[in-house]
Amino acid sequence: MRFSILQQKAAKSTVDPGASVLEHLEKREEKLRDSSNWYPRASQFLRHLCTQGKNSETPDLSPGELLVQELVEMSVEGDLPQDLLLQVLHREEEESFLIANMVNVAVCSVLVGATMGLPRENLVELGLAGLLHDIGKLRVPEEILFKKAPLSEEERGVIRTYPYESHAVLNPLAGSYGYLAECALHIMEKLDGSGYPQGLQGNAIHPYAQIMGLVDVYEAMTHSRPYRPKMLHFHAVKEMLKVYKHAFHRELFKALLTTFAFFPVASYVKLNSGAAGKVIQTYPEHPFRPKVAVVVDAQSKRVLVPRVIDLREQHVLYVVDAVAVETLPR
Questions:
Q1: What would the pLDDT profile of 133-144 be if each residue is shown by its tens digit?
Q2: pLDDT at position 52, please?
Q3: Does residue 24 register a pLDDT over 60?
């Protein structure tokens, strides 16, 4: 299925002409208050779902669907709190990385889908599929899932069966959520047939799974795992463009980079002057020229008061690389 079939301009929401400005502002403030604890609520939903899955109970997805509807509304209306985005992009959860990965993939998939212009109903389905995409990993032995050394060939074989487990968990819900089991089964498939478990190619892969698959790779590379450290976002993107060039549609790569930029907000960059700073704003039309708060000067000394530089307005200064905050002078 081509993405053009899904893509259409999302309807612009408007304020009810009969409602007062004060009522609109009150509703917006209430929405923002609810969004401040969205991440922990989504994590708690998944923990409860994990318990149901381990007990072989049919999962109740209605709370998750409500959470995703909130997320979609925030995204489409431009009300997604920056702290939620920062949690998704930078928060580390070594002990519960599986839960964090499912939450992060849900949020990132919705944001990428919104960038592509998918309508609300598709974004809700995409977000719910993202929230549940790795549910089958609950059935993978913990000694494999949390192993800190490289997996053996036999252990990798066990891991590669988990999409079937996800399908088995979600298939009983086919009546109400027919797409979920298929998306979970296809999450690790690649456009060029290099994925698993079925080696599907091209449009045989569910379009939601194609979006989630790219997002999942991005999320996994930019977050730590028990067996390896995380990569900086810029380095992860370069690696993805090299390794997965034929594995995902070009328009998906473009949507991902438009959504999160080469140097996301709160990441750190090094300038050609030798100074380093924290990215505080990005611009889709100028992906390599973010706004930066300089925290280390050209002599590698910490500055007392960060100086804000908009690199769009600079002809001499530019970013040469991403840097880890841990490597900067104290």
A1: 999 998 899 899
A2: 76
A3: no
- pTM of this structure: 0.89
159-189, pLDDT tens digit by residue? 999 999 999 989 998 788 989 999 999 999 9
Which one, of 173, 164, 100, 168, lies nearest residue 130 by Cα?
100
Tell me: do 246 and 317 sit in the same domain: no
Quickly tell me which residue has 């009522």 as its tokens: 23
Burial of 124 (0-12, 13-18, 19+ CB in 10 A): buried
Most confident by average pLDDT, 88-92, 107-111, 140-144:
107-111
DSSP 312: G
Tell me the three state secondary structure of residue 123: helix
Same domain, 93 and 200: yes
Residue 287 lies in domain = 268-327
DSSP symbol at 17: T
User: Which runs of consecutive H residues, i.e. helices, occur in the chain?
Assistant: 3-6, 21-35, 38-54, 62-77, 82-90, 97-115, 120-131, 142-145, 153-159, 162-170, 178-186, 207-221, 233-243, 250-260
Residues 256 and 272 in one domain: no
In a domain, 62, yes or no: yes
DSSP conformation class of 124: H
- Residue where a domain terminates, one of 260, 276, 297: 260
Residue 227's Cβ-count burial label (10 Å; 0-12, 13-18, 19+) is exposed
pLDDT at 36: 73
Backbone angles phi, psi at 2, to 5 degrees: -80, 150
